[in-house]
Each structure stands twice: as structure tokens, then as C-alpha cells.
Specification:
The complex is a heterotrimer. By secondary structure, chain A is an alpha+beta fold. Chain A has 22 helices and 50 strands. Chain B contains two helices and six strands. The chains are: A alpha+beta, B alpha+beta, C alpha+beta. At the A-C interface, β8, β15, β31, β39 and α20 of A face β7 and α4 of C. Chain B: One of its GO terms (biological process) is tetrahydrofolate metabolic process.
Chain lengths: 977, 95, 188
């Protein structure tokens, strides 16, 4: 097929031909075309099927407001559904397919739904599919999903990449039409940092689509000149193909830049970039959107907006039809007639709803005064129109102009409400604009070219940017408009929302059924809820609702405008955050050693930690974990515990500060000693625990749990700055600075003696349990040594500067070879802490108190500390409160289930009989059976009692015996040994 | 949102962490007669104004300062940003 | 006892590439020590710094280069970072001795990793990850800021007209390098 609808002129490069396919059919176009203009040039009027009724549809607009002509673009994984042909830039090799039909586009098997339309009117889902209920999931929904809907996903991973970014400017100009360009040039010449963003790939806005002149030159040429001037300025950033999709707080705007959508391949570069633009001021110069008039069968391919028809002729050198009638209620429609006629396109009639003289001379056209179109013919493309007086005119295109709506969307993104202007019969920006935003040009209701240029200059001046040059000369073209929303004589269905198939009748039905508020109207009929968000549909629809209710349009009001202005791909919102880079990950210093030694890793927050180290022959993780526990308890094991938060605390008042943030006393902690500390929340609930070492007179190192490292630091800063601002305390995180290893087991000291330099005495007398100190290892390497134990064994933690951590792991293992030292991971760590009865995250779960944890006596009443007062509330100290105790299964072969609840023998498993819950369980290789920690009412006084542990989630229960939580070495002989 | 840090200038709210009502600075005296009552009010009772609200923000991805931000909860307009430490001292907190 | 020796393995050691005309490298042996100013001892601290480095305290968000190559960065009213080239793991002691107890010092060398970027396209690449305005008239030479890039806390310093130094947590070094490298590749 050749480009049979090309006419002269336009901003396309005719010296180059590019090929593309539509439904597999080869077609040709030129650089500068959109897919829509190229389809029209090739005579392709039928482009898709409608959402609900599967009606044949064509191209309706020439911009991002397009409701109809959505296609699937590209092939394979890159296939993108619901792409508007009107904004898709043509490139060589582009492949597009129509969507929402079964069988071919021409013979859609689902078109039968159109015959069912009497049953498919507004609210039909709610009425029809109510009963029987069970049918919804199995029958109705799948059937509806199969028949309704738009394009298809490829179901493959998106092969493109996306990026984000941050831009800063004094002035963001939204829209590069006459007003935007004037504002940008004025501010740029005054030295401001200016960003100009426009959704189009050619800047200039309507200047490129009109035959209007500026300073005696073609409007498009004037625009190109301004763009060239701006492009040469270092303080200006021009952003074509960039949609400002949202206006956010404090001058922040969201901008989607389409970087490679106009290219056959992204070449490995991000397809789109989502920019966050920080602006001091913004000029909204987003122009206006033409609106249709509703009449019978107004949805046929070939019925188009008049401004779009004009744009195709002027900008793209395409006549959307051979005989094009114009149907208008305003002066603007006449320009379409005049421009087409001037380009040699036959214009048989201009049908003006107004009984007024011709606006201009249109050669060959009959002027039908006070007339309207009430019906059309042509199943797959317009053939004929019928006027209200019964006259029929053969046409293949009807250009409809119902007036223009200023694009106020972004003025309303912070709950602003637009104001109605009777003279324009349109909403214009109200007085509650986002702070920093001004509006200029057609977006502000300045509908003529001269007014737009003037306003662009004026708003820039109002923001303090001066340009003394003369205003460009342009005309105030006639813009009179007498609103007509609907041709009442229409007998056939008259469409409002083409994308969601909402007709005038649906709106009237919504009114009859009481869904009269606009927000109800919207949801009941789905008006404006499609991907175009009703840009061409909403105002006519609410005008009809206003008519039904006898209210004015401003009384009827608009629905809330929300971002995004046009659709933003999920990929762009995700940016780089996918796969491995979904979020940052943190590696422990010995990560490489662990990788090389068979570690399986587990995500702990952002950390990757070694979970266990499998050895050859082991059948599963339990084999590895059991071995790691037994070998550690039998001789010595080593674990990277760097992930625990470390906070360096210094200052004259550091001790006093610790005394106030921990519930237990720290005032008496001696230099060279470590103490366990429990932090409460101010409401008395246990928050975090860890050890704090006193390294010097005014120097402490606190450890936190891995999970709370960040929030504990935040709370300490809060206490330091907001509660006790005059304490001399300074905090800095050193979590990443020290590679810290637990060395645990009866041979821990023997191993460390080989690594710690000889000058340091590690004997039990010189370095007892809970001692700490700065030492050197491996011949002079500064290190820190803490004699603390999470496993319950004789244990130390040794820390070296993190960059030596990987080597240190190797050294510890090498030195431990004679003791059969074993590396252990987080699973063995967890097993050993449960065997020892240490509380961890499962126990410090934000619901438990020191009293529950059996640490009630630690809460000092002799000092102020966070959580002290409220932890003493009677409810929190109830005598029958749950207490942390241990459990073992009566049948030792049974595995306990975490999350089980304790129920008395013979009691029903109900909430009333609930006596507590199992918080942690593990198989204890040391004991040879499953063990658990849990909270039980008065648990500490119920040793030996037999209860049922019931897990309704698993549908299981078992008998358990209450025991001490300290399964291993209850007297602590090992860790003090 | 943008918070105009008193020392560092305008910064994206993404650098900050929100806590809540700046009344959290006014931690009661633990030894007062009505300490239990006062801590209960301190911990649980908040005003929820539609309009100007003094609230605590922490510049976690910045200089680690706690700020008292006066923000209109309806418009999000920020009318004042102060270092919480200064506010705390002005409210009589010391050691 | 010299049976065992420890080799340093800084996470980004050896990083060296050029993308989009920007040279990206990990400075070797960059030591970082934090100086916290004691409450009420600020002027004594300032004196000690002046004695040791011949520098007045830079303003908050600014840095200054001492004659010995040490760069002092003022991050907060009571917090200064000293950056200098020093291979052995005793940077904190070196600084502490010079300041004679007038400040609280903490070794931060291994807490951070650094990436240096230089070249005229650097700013354009950093637009993709850095929310702070790096326009030369706003973020001048010697300016410094802590901010967030790709969810990572980053200290960014403008060391020269087209020279930037970025510091981020050492445990997430790979994500940090990835974030910066991808930013360069995306503008190449």
C-alpha cells in the first residue's frame, strides 16, 4: 500500500522513506511521522476495536489525549500494549498490531457484543453478575476478562532498562508551545536556569499544527528559531519527548523522558528516565485539548477532532479523508475547513450549530447554519453523515470541533479546583495552584496565539525575569464558541468516552439511578477511568449530567485530577530497582572466604550472611547445622558477627547517657569490662539488647541487634539532641569498620592464643568472662577482644579493621586446624542461642516486656531511663503475665512448631484458654531432640507441667513439658571457664 | 517534599525520617508525683491539628540532626525549620 | 607469632575505569577519621586543629585542604571528618596524637569506601543518582554533602572543577560501585 493520503507540506522528511508494518501489512512513512499520521497516510482508517462493544475504531486525535487508536507496539518481550499511535514516533522497522479483537481486525468475532449492548449499559457488572455468587470467579470474571480489555502483555521480562534522575532549575516550563517558549526565552535571557519539557518530539506545540504566523514567518519556523536560541544557552535544558506527569509538594515535578522509544533499538541505554525536577517556579503552558460533540454513531473511524485533522494536514502532510466535512460549534472548526481547502482537500460542508455568518471563506464548502450531525453510516469507516434536517452528505472524514478545554490537570494535582469561565465554556485554572506554579497561554484560557505569546512573557516577568525585546507579532484569531455538548435529535448511541465505551445514554441512566455526583457518575459508568483518563470525554459528560440535574456545569464540578497526566510504565517507576539490584546489599568482611568454602547465604535485612557451610556428603541443611553446633560445642567454631550494629560512644557524659538509654545500670561498668544491656521503648516494651564495652574513661562501644542497628542509632541521637542536649556525648557508627568474629567452644582460648599477640594475657584470671580490651593480633594488627558468649560456650569476639576481615577468617581457620575448628552460620548460631535460652528477635517482638523476658529485676528503679516509668504500670507487671521458658516435646521424636499456642490439658483450643505461645524452636543436636522457647502465663512457676502446644495453622498439636529456657549449661560454667 | 535545613539548605525529604509531634521533646520528670499520668500523656496522647504542626524529622541521610519542622498538615507548607537541640534547650531541657 | 599475617582487602581496591569520558577509580589507602567536638570544648578543638593542620574549621558543608594533604570536612556543627592518605591501620592514633585530646576521634577508615570521579561528564552522570544540586554555582569546589543515592548514604565532595569524591558504606561497596558505574554507562 502506498501513501495515498499524503498531501503537500508538513514537517516530515520526505527525502527518506521508512517502512513499518501494521497487522503484518507493510506500509511506508517518513521521519517526523507518528504512527497515526503514517497510518492515515497509508489510508488505514480502522485501527482497533473498542473496549466493551468491539466497535470498529480509528484515529480520533493527534496527541496524547487519544482514546481510540491504541496498539500493541514492537514484538516479543519488548511488546507494549495500549500504545497511543498518536504519540508513537515512527521508526524504520516499527511493528504494530491492533488489539482487542478475536479473529482479524476487520472481522472481530467478539463484535457480537455490540448487538448485546442493551444489556451492557452502565452498571451492568453490578446488576448482572450478582447471582449466583459462586459463578463470579469461575464463569463471569474469566468470560468478561476474555472479551473486554485492551492490549496484551508479552508475559516476558521487560528487556529494556530504565533510569531515574534529579534535575534542579529556577524555572520549569511545562509545554513548549507559544506561551511556553516565550516564558522560557524570557527567563533564559535573564540568566535563569530553565528546563523546558514537552511531551512531543518536536517543540513548538500548536505552532507546528497551524498555519498561523509569528513576526511574519510561519509559526513553526518561529518556534524552531526560539528552540535553536534556547538550545545554544548553557542555562537551558530542552527536554523533548518528556511528559511532566505530576506536580508534587514544594516545587517537585515528575517528568518521564522517553529516550529510545523512537528508535528501533535502545542500544542498551535506558529506554526511559523518570526525572524528579526541583523547581523554584514552574510555568504551566500545557495548552488545551479539543472536545468532541456527541451525536449518533459518532465513534466511527473517520470521525475525528477538527484540530487533529488540521494538524495531520499541516504538520504531517496527510489528509485524513478525501471528502472532509466539518462539524463545529465554534470559529475554530472553520480553520480546519479553510486549511484543508487550501491544501486541495475537498470540503463539502461546514456544519455550524450556530446560526451565524461564515467565519471565513472555504472554497467549495456549503455552510449549513444552525445545523448539526445526528447520525453516521459506514461500518468500518465513515461513509455518510445525516444532519438534523435529514440531509445526508457522503464524506469519509468528519472533523468535529466542540471547543477547547484548557489543560488544567497539573494545577489540580494538589487538590486545586478549576474555575469555570462562561465565555470559554470551559474550566480554567482556579486560584489554588500548587505553590510556585503560574499558568500561561491556552492552559490559562488565553486561547489566541497573540494572547499566548503575551502571557508567556508576562508570567516570566511576574517571576522577576525581564526581557526588553518587542513581543512577537501575531494575530488574535477568532475563537468564538457556543457550547453544544450533544445533538439531542440523535437516535443512535452517542459516545462520550470512546475508550471505555460510555455513551450519553449511560450518563442519563446513571442520573436516573441516582449516581449524580461526578465521582459516582465516574465509578458507575467507568467514564474517564480508561488509560486516557477521559481527556476528551469528561467535560462533555458532566455537561450532560448538569443538563439532567438542572444544575450548571461548575455546580456539577469535576472529578479530582491526579497524577500521572499520561500513563507512566511500571518499569520507569521501578527504575533500576530490579533483580539483584532491587535494593542495596551488604556483604560481611569474610564474604569471599565464605563463598569459597561452601556457604549458603541468607538475606538478613540488606545483609547477606552465611547460613551454613555444607560439606561433601551432607544430605541437607540440617546435617550441616547439626555438625556445626556439635563441633563448636565439642571444640571451637567461628562465626562472622560483623552485622551486629556497633556504635562508638564518646564523651564526658557517655556513661551517664548509657545509664539512661539502657534499663539496667551502666554507671558502674569498669574500663575493660562489657555488660549486657536491655533497651526499652518509652512505653515499657523491650526494644533491643546487646552488649556495651567500656574501652576507656570516656569511650564505649555499644552493640545492637543486626535488625535494629539503624533505628537504635536514630533513637540514641534523639535522646542526645532532644532529651538531654547538654550531655557531652558523641555517637558514630562503626558497624562496617570492624570485622568481628565469634570464636566459641572449649578450645576458643587455645585458638586465640595462637592469633592474639603474646603480650596479651588471655588467661581466665587476666581476661575473665565479660572482659574487653584493645589488643594486637598477627604481629601488631590493632584489634579488639571481647569475652562475651551468645552460644553459651567459652567464647570471645575478636574484631579487626574490616579490610583485614577476609584474611582474619582464613587465619582463624588456619590456626584452628589443630582443634578441628569449624565455621558456623546463622542457623547454628540460632540453634545455640535457643539451647542457651537467649532471647532474640522472636522474643523481642515488640510485645514483650522485661518482666515477660524474665529480666524484670534488671529494670533499675533508682535512675531515670527510657521506658522506666511506663514499664511499671500494673498491667505490665501482672502476676499472671507470660514468662519466657523452655519447652520440650513429651514425645522426644516430635518436632515442635513455632507459633503454637499453649492450651491446658482437656481445655478447648480457644482464645479464652490461650496460655501463651512458642516463639522459637530448633532441633538441638546437643540434646538429640526438638526444643523451644516460648511465653507462658506464670511460666517460671510451672516447671515440669505438661501442656498442649496447638498449631491450628498446621492442624497439629502435641504435648510439651515446661522446662528451663537454659537447655545447655544452666549454671554458666562453660562461658566462665 | 523539601525541607529547608537550617544549616544545610533545602534537602529532599527522602533524606529524612519522620518521627511525629515535637511534643516528644517534652519528656516528663520521672520522679514527679504524677509521673505515671504524665508519661502516659507523653507516650500516647497527641494533637492532630489540621493546620500548623510542629513535628520531628531526623536527617538520617545527612548530618544526623533532629529538626523541628513546622508544617501545615493540610497544604504541606513548611513555615519553619529549627534544630531540635536548640528547641529542646529553649524549652528548658539540659542534662 | 609472625606465623600469621593479615592482608588488607579493601572492597573496591583496584577499581579503575573510564566510561563516558569520566575516570572512575577507588583511591588507595584513603584513611578517614572522625573528630567530634566536645560540648563546651569547641574553641579548644578549633585551636588544636589549627595547630595540627594550619586550618580554620571549615563551615558546615565545606571542606579545606591542609598543607600535609589532609582534607577536613565539616559535616555537622560538632563533627569533622579528616581524610588523608595512610596505609597502615593506625590512622585514628595518628590524628588523635596530633590533636592532643582536644577532640574525640574514631577511626572511620574501614567504615567507608571511596570512589573518585573526574571528567566533564561527571555531573551529568551524577544527575542520575544524586538528589543534591551539583550546579557549579551552587555546589562549589570544596563543598561537601551527605545525601542518599540509590538508597545508600553517600558523602559527596567536590574536590575540583570536575573532580568529585564519593564515600559510602564499605559493606555495600558492590551496590555503591554498581550505582555509580551504571550512571556512567547510562550516559555514555
Amino acid at each position: 500500500m502506498s501513501q495515498i493520503h499524503r498531501i503537500k507540506g508538513g514537517l516530515i522528511d520526505r527525502s527518506t522513506e521508512i517502512s513499518f508494518t501494521f497487522n503484518g501489512k507493510a506500509m511506508r512513512g517518513h521521519p517526523g511521522d507518528t504512527l497515526a499520521s503514517a497510518l492515515l497516510a497509508n489510508g488505514q482508517r480502522l485501527v482497533g476495536r473498542s473496549f466493551k462493544y468491539h466497535r470498529p475504531r480509528g484515529i480520533f486525535t493527534a496527541g496524547s489525549e487519544e482514546p481510540n487508536a491504541l496498539v500493541e507496539l514492537r514484538k516479543g518481550a519488548a511488546q507494549e500494549p495500549n500504545t497511543r499511535t498518536t504519540v508513537a514516533e515512527l521508526f524504520d522497522g516499527l511493528s504494530a498490531r491492533s488489539q482487542n479483537h478475536r479473529g482479524s481486525l476487520e472481522f472481530d468475532l467478539m463484535a457480537v457484543t455490540d448487538l448485546l449492548s442493551p444489556f451492557l449499559s452502565a452498571g451492568f457488572y453490578y446488576k448482572t453478575f450478582m447471582w449466583p455468587r459462586a459463578f463470579w470467579e469461575k464463569l463471569y470474571e474469566p468470560a468478561i476478562r476474555a472479551s473486554a480489555g485492551l492490549g496484551r502483555l508479552s508475559m516476558e521480562e521487560d528487556p529494556d532498562t530504565y533510569d531515574k534522575g534529579y534535575l534542579h532549575c529556577d524555572l520549569l516550563v511545562i509545554g513548549a508551545g507559544p506561551a511556553g517558549l516565550m516564558a522560557a526565552r524570557t527567563a533564559a535571557r535573564a540568566g535563569a536556569r530553565v528546563i523546558v519539557a514537552d511531551e512531543d518530539f518536536v517543540l513548538g506545540g500548536r505552532l507546528n499544527a497551524e498555519t498561523l504566523e509569528v513576526d511574519g514567518a510561519a509559526g513553526a519556523d518561529w518556534a524552531a528559531g526560539v528552540v535553536a536560541e534556547l538550545a545554544a544557552m548553557a542555562n537551558v535544558r530542552l527536554m523533548p519527548r518528556s511528559t511532566v506527569y505530576g506536580a508534587y509538594d514544594h516545587g517537585v515535578y515528575g517528568v518521564l523522558e522517553r529516550c529510545t522509544d523512537h528508535l528501533a533499538s535502545s542500544g542498551g541505554k535506558p529506554r526511559q528516565v523518570l526525572w524528579r525536577v526541583y523547581s523554584r517556579h514552574a510555568v504551566l503552558a500545557a495548552g488545551a485539548t479539543e472536545r468532541p460533540i456527541a451525536f449518533g454513531n459518532n465513534d466511527r473511524p473517520g470521525v475525528m477532532l477538527a484540530g487533529a485533522v488540521r494538524a495531520y494536514a499541516n504538520r504531517w502532510g496527510v489528509a485524513p479523508g478525501r471528502r472532509v466535512a466539518v462539524f463545529t460549534n465554534s470559529d475554530d472548526g472553520w480553520r480546519t475547513a479553510a486549511d484543508l481547502a487550501a491544501k486541495g482537500v475537498e470540503v463539502p460542508a461546514v456544519i455550524d450549530t450556530r446560526d451565524a455568518p461564515a467565519v471565513c471563506d472555504v472554497p467549495g464548502a456549503r455552510h449549513m447554519r444552525g445545523a448539526a450531525v445526528m447520525d453516521t453510516k459506514g461500518r468500518k469507516g465513515l461513509r455518510q453523515i445525516t444532519l438534523t434536517d435529514g440531509q445526508m452528505i457522503d464524506v469519509d472524514c468528519l472533523a468535529v470541533s466542540g471547543g477547547w478545554n484548557p489543560n488544567v490537570h497539573l494545577t489540580c494535582h494538589q487538590r486545586g479546583r478549576p474555575a469555570w469561565r462562561d465565555d470559554l465554556a470551559a474550566f480554567v485554572p482556579g486560584h489554588d495552584l500548587p505553590p510556585g506554579m503560574v499558568v500561561a497561554g491556552a492552559a490559562n484560557g488565553a486561547m489566541t496565539l497573540a494572547a499566548a505569546l503575551r502571557e508567556g512573557r508576562v508570567v516570566a516577568e511576574r517571576l522577576g525575569y525581564a526581557d526588553k525585546s518587542d513581543l512577537p507579532r501575531a494575530e488574535d484569531e477568532p475563537r468564538d464558541c457556543a457550547p453544544v455538548w450533544h445533538v439531542p435529535q440523535s437516535r443512535a448511541r452517542a459516545w462520550l468516552d470512546l475508550q471505555n465505551d460510555v455513551t450519553v445514554k449511560d450518563v442519563k441512566q446513571a442520573h436516573q439511578e441516582g449516581f449524580r455526583a461526578v465521582e459516582h457518575l465516574k465509578r458507575y459508568t467507568t467514564l474517564g477511568m480508561a488509560t486516557d483518563q477521559g481527556k476528551t470525554a469528561n467535560i462533555p459528560a458532566l455537561a450532560i449530567m448538569a443538563d439532567c440535574t438542572g444544575r450548571t456545569i461548575p455546580e456539577t464540578g469535576t472529578t479530582i485530577f491526579r497524577p500521572p497526566y499520561t500513563p507512566v510504565p511500571i518499569g520507569a517507576l521501578a527504575g533500576r530497582a530490579r533483580g539483584r539490584e532491587f535494593r542495596p546489599y551488604r556483604l560481611t568482611p569474610s564474604h569471599r572466604w565464605a563463598e569459597a568454602n561452601g556457604a549458603t547465604f541468607v538475606e538478613v535485612g540488606n545483609w547477606l550472611r552465611a547460613q551454613w557451610f555444607a560439606r561433601e556428603g551432607e544430605q541437607g541443611w540440617r546435617d550441616s547445622v547439626d555438625r556445626e553446633v556439635l563441633m563448636t560445642r565439642g571444640s571451637v567454631g567461628i562465626c562472622d558477627v560483623t552485622t551486629l550494629g556497633k556504635i562508638d560512644i564518646q564523651g564526658r557524659d557517655a556513661g551517664e547517657f548509657l545509664n539512661r538509654v539502657y534499663c539496667n545500670g551502666f554507671a558502674t561498668l569498669a574500663v575493660g569490662r562489657v555488660r549486657y544491656g536491655l533497651m526499652l521503648r518509652e512505653d515499657g516494651i523491650a526494644y533491643d539488647d546487646g552488649t556495651t564495652a567500656r574501652l576507656g574513661e570516656h569511650h564505649y562501644v555499644m552493640t545492637t541487634t543486626t535488625a535494629n542497628a539503624v533505628t537504635v542509632f536514630r533513637r540514641l541521637e534523639f535522646a542526645r539532641q532532644c532529651l538531654w542536649p547538654d550531655l557531652d556525648v558523641h555517637l558514630i557508627s562503626t558497624t562496617d569498620g570492624w570485622a568481628q568474629f565469634a570464636v566459641a567452644g572449649p578450645n576458643a582460648r587455645n585458638l586465640l592464643r595462637k592469633v592474639v599477640d603474646e603480650s596479651h594475657d588471655l588467661s581466665n584470671e587476666a581476661f575473665p568472662f565479660m572482659a574487653c580490651g584493645e589488643v594486637t593480633v598477627c604481629d601488631g594488627m590493632p584489634a579488639r577482644l571481647f569475652r562475651i558468649s551468645f552460644s553459651g560456650e567459652l567464647a570471645y569476639e575478636v574484631a579487626v579493621p574490616a579490610r583485614y576481615g577476609n584474611a582474619m577468617m582464613g587465619v582463624l581457620m588456619e590456626a584452628g586446624r589443630e582443634f578441628d575448628a569449624v565455621p558456623y552460620g546463622t542457623e547454628a548460631l540460632g540453634v545455640m542461642r535457643i539451647e542457651k535460652g537467649h532471647a532474640a528477635g522472636n522474643e523481642l517482638n515488640g510485645q514483650t516486656t522485661a518482666h515477660n523476658l524474665g529480666m524484670g529485676r534488671m529494670v533499675s528503679r533508682k535512675k531515670d531511663c527510657i521506658g522506666n516509668v511506663l514499664s511499671q504500670r500494673p498491667e505490665m507487671l501482672r502476676e499472671d503475665a507470660v514468662k519466657l521458658v523452655g519447652f520440650r516435646p513429651v514425645d522426644r521424636a516430635t518436632g515442635l512448631i513455632a507459633g503454637s499456642h499453649f492450651i491446658g490439658q482437656g481445655d478447648a483450643a480457644t482464645m479464652e484458654n490461650d496460655q501463651g505461645w512458642m516463639s522459637s524452636v530448633a532441633y538441638s543436636p546437643s540434646l538429640g531432640h526438638s526444643i523451644g522457647l516460648g511465653f507462658l502465663k506464670r511460666g517460671d512457676a510451672r516447671m515440669g507441667e505438661i501442656l498442649r502446644a496447638v498449631s491450628p495453622v498446621h492442624g497439629r498439636e502435641m504435648e510439651v513439658e515446661v522446662v528451663s529456657a537454659h537447655f545447655i549449661d544452666p549454671d554458666g560454667e562453660r562461658l566462665r571457664g | 517534599m523539601i525541607i529547608n535545613h537550617p544549616l544545610l539548605g533545602p534537602r529532599d525529604a527522602a533524606e529524612f525520617v519522620y518521627l511525629g509531634d515535637a511534643a516528644l521533646i517534652d519528656r516528663p520528670d520521672w520522679q514527679a508525683e504524677d509521673a505515671a499520668e504524665a508519661f502516659h500523656a507523653y507516650g500516647y496522647l497527641r494533637d492532630n491539628p489540621a493546620g500548623a504542626h510542629q513535628e520531628l524529622w531526623y536527617h538520617e541521610q545527612g548530618d544526623r540532626s533532629w529538626l523541628v519542622v513546622t508544617r501545615d498538615t493540610v497544604s504541606h507548607e513548611i513555615t519553619a525549620v529549627e534544630l531540635a537541640r536548640d528547641v529542646a534547650r529553649a524549652r528548658g531541657r539540659s542534662r | 607469632m609472625a606465623e600469621y599475617t593479615l592482608q588488607a582487602e579493601p572492597p573496591l581496591a583496584g577499581t579503575e575505569m573510564e566510561i563516558a569520558g569520566v575516570r572512575l577509580s577507588a583511591p588507595a589507602d584513603l584513611a578517614v577519621v572522625s573528630l567530634a567536638l566536645p560540648l563546651g570544648g569547641e574553641s579548644a578543638a578549633e585551636e588544636a586543629v589549627k595547630d595540627a593542620y594550619g586550618l580554620d574549621f571549615p563551615g558546615i558543608g565545606r571542606s579545606a585542604l591542609a598543607g600535609d594533604g589532609t582534607r577536613l570536612i565539616r559535616l555537622a556543627p560538632d563533627l569533622v571528618f579528616a581524610l588523608f592518605t595512610h596505609a597502615t591501620p593506625d590512622a585514628e592514633r595518628v590524628v588523635a596524637e596530633g590533636l592532643k585530646g582536644a577532640v574525640y576521634t574514631t577511626d572511620q577508615t574501614d567504615v567507608w569506601v571511596a570512589l573518585a570521579l573526574s571528567g566533564p561528564n561527571t555531573r551529568r552522570a551524577l544527575e542520575r543518582i544524586c538528589p543534591v544540586d551539583l550546579h557549579p554555582e551552587v555546589f562549589g569546589v570544596d563543598h561537601a554533602a551527605r545525601t542518599v543515592m540509590e538508597h545508600l548514604g553517600v558523602l559527596i565532595l567536590r574536590a575540583g572543577a570536575d573532580d568529585y569524591l564519593l564515600l559510602s558504606a564499605s559493606s555495600s561497596a558492590r551496590s555503591f560501585l554498581h550505582a555509580v558505574e551504571v550512571s556512567l554507562r547510562n550516559i555514555a
